[in-house]
């Protein structure tokens, strides 16, 4: 009988803890996200979508910018999943590499700009809570995570573009045979 009582208390306790976590989000991170999303949308309006589109097109001409600045800008301004629409500024053979870079930036951008990918925020906040409990601040880890993310997306973008071009070339050769 004690086992059933303990099981029932544990079961409802799980939901009580979930409620406490939810209240923490409502009073903590959710207002921050709303403010960040509002600020980014205001920045888009102030800068003008046309200017941002022109800048995006300039970024696509350089392979380093194409797989660093461009996906970061897409994630920052349009957030996940709308960031992938920036692929419209690219040549067809560059689109898979852009997607690979942008999707690989979903985690690293969250530490500095949580509005960019709120779905990943819960994962990041779990890690952040552990870091804070150890007595460390989040700034240095967020910056390092972002920098490493930028390096990784460049490598992934360049490699994916190379692989895509090889596959397209092979497909063209097979079609001509």
UniProtKB/TrEMBL annotation:
Keyword match Electron transport: no
Segments crossing the lipid bilayer: 22-44, 64-84, 141-159
Superkingdom, natural source: Bacteria
Keywords: Membrane, Transmembrane, Transmembrane helix
GO biological process terms on file: phosphoenolpyruvate-dependent sugar phosphotransferase system
GO cellular component, one term: membrane
InterPro entries reported for this sequence: PTS_IID_sorb
Keyword DNA damage: no
Record NCBIfam families: EII-GUT
Protein name: PTS system glucitol/sorbitol-specific EIIC component SrlA
Provenance organism: Brevibacillus laterosporus LMG 15441
């Amino acid at each position: 009988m004690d086992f059933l009582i303990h099981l029932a208390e544990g079961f409802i306790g799980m939901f009580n803890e979930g409620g406490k976590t939810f209240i923490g989000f409502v009073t903590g991170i959710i207002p921050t996200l709303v403010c960040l999303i509002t600020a980014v949308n205001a920045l888009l309006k102030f800068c003008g979508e046309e200017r941002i589109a022109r800048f995006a097109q300039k970024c696509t001409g350089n392979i380093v910018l194409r797989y660093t600045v461009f996906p970061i800008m897409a994630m920052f301004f349009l957030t996940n999943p709308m960031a992938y629409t920036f692929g419209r500024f690219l040549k067809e053979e560059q689109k898979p590499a852009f997607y690979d870079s942008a999707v690989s930036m979903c985690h690293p951008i969250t530490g500095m700009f949580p509005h960019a990918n709120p779905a990943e925020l819960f994962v990041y906040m779990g890690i952040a809570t552990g870091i804070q409990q150890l007595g460390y601040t989040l700034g240095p880890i967020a910056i390092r995570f972002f920098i490493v993310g930028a390096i990784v997306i460049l490598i992934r973008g360049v490699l994916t573009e190379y692989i895509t071009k090889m596959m397209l070339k092979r497909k063209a050769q097979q079609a001509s045979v």
